[in-house]
From TrEMBL:
The keyword Cell membrane does not apply. The gene is tpiA. It comes from Kaistella solincola. It catalyses: D-glyceraldehyde 3-phosphate = dihydroxyacetone phosphate. This is Triosephosphate isomerase. PANTHER family: TRIOSEPHOSPHATE ISOMERASE.
């Protein structure tokens, strides 16, 4: 079901004490403040169990930042969908551009991971987006189309409805440069229309599409107010409760 979501991707930040402190701040924040969106966090994998414990009584979704395309076995360093399911995780980020850039992840890998996640009842947050070069050469719509088709279009209508998509232009990640609300809206509408063409409008309208790339307290409201933008996947600004909470509050009237 389409919902408004603010998801924090902590990436490779915070030692265990700092992670615990930020989680406790978020536990307190969510106890004291009602919000008009779902709140999800993706801490480093090492802290997922701690997150499950600390948020046991809060409605905060707990996500891994990646998961394996393999089911189980001799894959050193990997975390499986089944492991995530077994600790009660909500889901996993899949295909983040940093995984693509530094670990050679492709949309075919994403497709395999998404299927495994769905089989285990996990919510995949599938990330896509173009590089600066691709945008400058006017290929952004085509790139995102290709990514979306390869990663998602082998899914059934029932399956794709359970996927959350995060459009993250690579040139806006951690750079302080944000896509304008209009640029982001253009791609979000494009993704939704691709899904509508393939699966029908009803299915497309059920899918939450998040924007990621230098979302901050001072630009969140304008970005989230676009008709096809259902929230954000937040990096740097998810690392401080003051910033993250203000972004959550961008959904308040
Ligand atoms: O996963 C989050 C995105 O990569 C955005 O990161 P950022 O908010 O630091 O630009």
């Amino acid at each position: 079901m389409r919902k408004n979501i603010v998801a924090g991707n902590w990436k490779m930040n915070k030692n265990v004490i700092e992670a615990q402190q930020l989680m406790l701040q978020l536990v307190n924040y969510t106890k004291e403040n009602a919000s008009n969106c779902e709140i999800w966090i993706a801490p480093p994998a090492l802290y997922l169990l701690m997150a499950k414990d600390l948020f046991a009584l809060n409605e905060v979704g707990i996500f891994s930042q990646d998961m394996s395309e393999y089911e189980s076995g001799a894959y050193t360093g990997e975390i499986s969908a089944e492991m995530l399911e077994s600790i009660g995780a909500t889901g996993s980020i899949i295909g983040h551009s940093e995984r693509r850039q530094f670990h050679g992840e492709t949309d075919s890998h994403c497709n395999a991971k998404i299927k495994l996640a769905l089989e285990k009842g996990l919510t995949p947050i599938y990330c896509n987006g173009e590089t600066l070069e691709q945008r400058k050469s006017g290929k952004h719509l085509e790139v995102v189309k290709n990514q979306t088709e390869v990663a998602l279009f082998t899914l059934s209508a029932d399956e794709i409805k359970k996927v959350v998509i995060a459009y993250e232009p690579v040139w806006a990640i951690g750079t302080g440069e944000t896509a304008s609300p209009e640029q982001a809206q253009e791609i979000h509408a494009h993704i939704r229309s691709l899904i509508a063409e393939k699966y029908g409008k009803e299915v497309a309208d059920e899918i939450s599409i998040l924007y990621g790339g230098s979302v901050k307290p001072d630009n969140a409201k304008e970005i989230f107010s676009q008709p096809d933008i259902d929230g954000g996947l937040i990096g740097g600004a998810a690392l401080k409760i003051e910033d993250f909470s203000k972004i959550i509050e961008a959904f308040n009237a």
